[in-house]
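Input record (one chain):
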Amino acid sequence: MAIAKAERLMNLALCLLGTRRPLSKRELRESIEAYLEAGSDDSFNRMFERDKDDLRELGLVIETVENLDGEVGYLARRDSNRLPPITLDAEEAAALGLAAKVWQQARLAGAASGALQKLRAAGLPEDVDPYEAHGALEPRIPVHEAAFEPLMLACRDRRPVVFDYRKGTAAHPETRHVEPWALECWRGHWYLAGWDRDRGAERVFRLSRITGKVRTRGAGFTAPVPDVVTVRETVASWAGETADRSARIRLRAGAGYPLRVKATSVRELGDGWDELEIPYGHGLDAWLVEFGPDVVVLEPAELRADVVDRLRAVAKG
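The corresponding structure, as predicted from the sequence alone:
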């Protein structure tokens, strides 16, 4: 069905762009096979009006012209639908190439590659290779969560979503109704920032804890969407990047390199253990749980309790 509609839209666009005079509905129906197969005039009219609206949403400028006999015709003038010349300097081309490499492992890889090919055809400088620029950098943003693509589309289209979410301290998932703002990647994990309708407050959700399918809803947003910088600050805070205290932990020798990098002090305890002082902010408990038996929280007491609760939840399944 999707392929048939895409072909029909393409044929309609070609007809409207290729004519020098307005074409009536009758002429368009006789020119496009899919319209000829329409069962009735009403069916054709509904199909044509939907296709015309879809093409306009895609950016095609379609003019409606009425002749002396009162018959309505349609055409898309080439000069009204011609894009301006695309000019990119070496730095801009390199940035696009870098972005394409970033998405190499994601579902967007094909779209990113296709976009660069179109830019090349539209006049990207021949002496600039966007894929080879800054070749020493090989960035990757792995996307394994099934929730990523529907949430990305929901953020783009400003559509509320519903999904089941399992908190680190909960044995069973809860249903969340969220107005999605943006997706951010921190420490190799993807997070969704948005407005939680049930709690009436902004919340951050880790995609790996979303279970089942993400369902979209037709209603609009009820809360204002903050700017990108504010959203990133929110994710950073919830992901544990903002710390205002310190915590003491025991860490098995030779383990937990990411924790050692963050540590403000390290002391050998002997017997294969070290004591570390690390910054303590929101989300640290979830991060410590990932190191399993290699980490023991000494203080503060609330952090130790949070880590124990998370481990018990994991043990319960």
